[in-house]
Amino acid sequence: MATSEVKVLGIWPSPYVIRARIALNIKSVNYEFVQEPIGSKSELLLKSNPIHKKIPVMIHGDKIICESLIIVQYIDEFWSSAPQILPSDPYDRAITRFWGAYIDHKLFPSMRIIALGHEDNEVMKKELNIIYESFALLEDVFQKSSNGKKFFGGENIGYLDIALGCNLGWVRVTEKMNNVKVLDEEKTPGLYKWSQDFSDDDAVKELIPETEKMIEAGLFFMNKMKASQS
Amino acid sequence: MATSEVKVLGIWPSPYVIRARIALNIKSVNYEFVQEPIGSKSELLLKSNPIHKKIPVMIHGDKIICESLIIVQYIDEFWSSAPQILPSDPYDRAITRFWGAYIDHKLFPSMRIIALGHEDNEVMKKELNIIYESFALLEDVFQKSSNGKKFFGGENIGYLDIALGCNLGWVRVTEKMNNVKVLDEEKTPGLYKWSQDFSDDDAVKELIPETEKMIEAGLFFMNKMKASQS
């Protein structure tokens, strides 16, 4: 049936694309992953997201949904009877959205600069510090909201787990390439354990790329991704 | 009762603050508007929003909610039996959120540059063009989603009306100070009519400041707002 067909347009190392795919896995929705060409934008992408021309795009029957956290919310609201991704309490939802926005507008831009590299060492140092500070803040959020459970969302993966966890592949690349510890067993013990539980989850484990594979493909992808990631 | 007390921290000309206030008016929620000092940040603001230190902040009993569109969603979800602000269909909600994010990340940054002024005329020209293009796009969105009705959300003011309409005061200042037409009866006929209906609505009319009052207070506020607006 046309309306039940789901496609995700994207490239495999993009954390934003991984968000949509984890959410679909949580809801047990079958979907087709349509790999975008590297270094150019497909006709389907340009037609589907003419405003931003960015991945991920989710096509659900005749409906097109863009922007990763909006896609995650759509998936949660459309398949509402499957495991819940956002909490149900309005205040918990607001807090969750606040930190989701923080991750997108404060943490990920710095992670992107570090991943792509920067010729000025001072810039690298400054951005790495933002990353450390952000993870220290998020450790605190995790301790409060997980309340001794495995995830930000409790015993199951929720919105904030997806929002942050989608980038674990690049966290590991950042650690390895810069010889640093972003998730530290002593400084961020909650998130350190969380990152393992998250990566091991059935909805996630096929999607977070192996560090070596990412580094190998990294340089090629990273140069091309500058123009196409959303 | 403590938990039912609502306060909004902000300054009156901030479109982001106006968003929260319109949403509360739509839900007929009584609230106290706490005017922030100009040029400094109150202890209450710094304590309430230590991450971004920005207005608006909504305090609801012992709960603190930050970031204007997150506040609007919280208000819609907490007072869920009053008139609905977001549409109920998941796809309509996704589209609404998409354009809300577009307004915040594409349109308003350009409106801000124009409102604050820029010494380089080329920058002013470029930013004005972004504003024209954005309103042309939003005219199209309006025509499709209002479907002959008064607002983006139908017969009643909804999320997208609030997201865009909160800035009508600055649209008018921009028009007057730069001798241009942003909302044009011929080029954007739907939005031109919409802007009048929106400003006349009971939930809005006390909140969109008069153009003359904004221009008068503008220079003073605008210089100070650079650091405090969210």
What are the defining features of this structure?
homodimer; Glutathione S-transferase Yfyf (Class Pi), Chain A, domain 2; alpha+beta; 9 helices; Glutaredoxin; 2 domains; four-stranded mixed sheet
Overview of this structure, please?
2 copies of one chain form a homodimer. Chain A is of the alpha+beta class and 230 residues long. Chain A has 2 domains: 2-78, Glutaredoxin; 90-228, Up-down Bundle (Glutathione S-transferase Yfyf (Class Pi), Chain A, domain 2). Helix content of chain A is 57%, strand content 7%. Chain A has helices at residues 15-26, 43-48, 68-78, 90-116, 121-146, 159-165, 168-178, 189-200, 211-228; strands spanning 6-10, 32-35, 57-60, 63-66. A 4-stranded mixed beta sheet of chain A has the order 2-1-3-4, covered by helices on one side. In chain A, β1, α1 (15-26) and β2 (32-35) form a beta-alpha-beta unit. In chain A, α1 (15-26) runs parallel beside α3 (68-78). Chain A is globular. The two termini of chain A are 30 Å apart. The mean pLDDT of chain A is 91. The A-B interface holds A 51, 60, 63, 65-67, 70-71, 73-74, 77-78, 90-91, 93-94, 97-98, 101-102, 137 and B 51, 60, 63, 65-67, 70-71, 73-74, 77-78, 90-91, 93-94, 97-98, 101-102, 137.
